[in-house]
Every structure is written in structure tokens, then in C-alpha cells.
Amino acid sequence: MIFAAGVVLLFFLTLIPYHLYDSGQLHYFLYALHKLQPEVLSRDWLVTQTANPHPFFAEAIALLSSLDNLPLALFAVHAAQFLFLIIGIFSLTQIFSKDSRTPIVVFSLLLFYFSDGIGQSTLYSSIVQPEDLAKLFYLFSLSALLEEKITRTWIFLGLTTLFDVLSGLEALCGVGLDLRY
Fold first, then answer.
1. 123 close to 109: Cβ distance less than 8 angstroms
2. 58-86 pLDDT tens trace
3. Which of 3, 99, 133, 156 could link 163 by a cystine bridge, Cβ 3.0 to 4.6 Å?
4. What is the rounded distance in angstroms from the CA atom of residue 169 to the CA atom of residue 167?
5. d(CA 117, CA 80)
6. Signed CA dihedral, 150, 155, 159, 165: sign only
7. CA 43 to CA 50: how far, in whole Å?
8. What is the rounded distance in angstroms from the CA atom of residue 105 to the CA atom of residue 69?
């Protein structure tokens, strides 16, 4: 499965453009930049006077910034995120069906739920953003729920919320429909 996911990953990384410092992604990086260098943006109202909507993501970006090559590190995160998305969707579909056509479903989902920006309903986008990471963890929480691994379900839901509170609330509503837990 890892090999097949890798082949699909390579296909999508060549098909779908990858953007850095584009779209709303810059907004997410402002908080990390200010954390790393407090004198930068010290008089910016958005950064200094409002609550950071994605504090864990800003911490992760700040940590990645300590590496020598932030663009390469972000691309590695982007590729790893997509690889785990492929594996997650495939695992979820395997729970429902052992049909040999399952990879076609995975491939189709990824083709049709792509976005080239923020603020759209997607599974995958061309930028590294907190919502995409949150959706990835939500996908794994659904798989864990269907396999009745409740502790793992709640751990993944926690990670979903850690990266994006709104996605976490949506995920809690979705998993909350299974009232046994």
C-alpha cells in the first residue's frame, strides 16, 4: 500500500501545483515570524493585538524555521501530508469495502477535492495550511472510530482541534453522532 500511495503521491505532486508564501498562507506565517523575531511586526495590530487563531501551527512553523531551508521543509510537510491523506482515505475505504476498485475511489476523491487557495471545502490544497492538517487527523479519527479504537479516535480528534479549532468542532459534531462513546 505504501508503494501505491507513493506512486499516487508523485502523480499528484506533478499534476497539482505547490505554492509557497501564497494566498492566505502568509497570514499563518505572520505569527510564527513575530514569535521568532519579536521586533518584526511589533506594531502590527493583527499580530500583536488579536488572538492567534492557529497557535500550534505557528509554533510548528517557527520550529521548521529553525531548519536551514524552510521552503524545503514546508515542501516535505506538504508531501508527507498528502501521502498520509492517501493512506488515510484508502484505509477508510478499506473498512467499508475490500473491493479491488477501492484505489479508484481514493484517486477520484483526491482529484475532485483539491483547492488552490483558502476558504474552500477541500481535502487537499496547494499550500501548507492548518485546515488541511486538521482534516488529515480527522480522517484518521474516523478510521479509528469505525475500527472501535476509541482512545485513538479521541487522540486524533484532539490533534484535529489543535491544528484548527473550527475543524475540530466540526469533527466533534461528526463523531458525536455515534452516541455510544
1. yes
2. 888 888 888 888 888 888 888 888 888 88
3. 133
4. 5
5. 19
6. positive
7. 12
8. 36
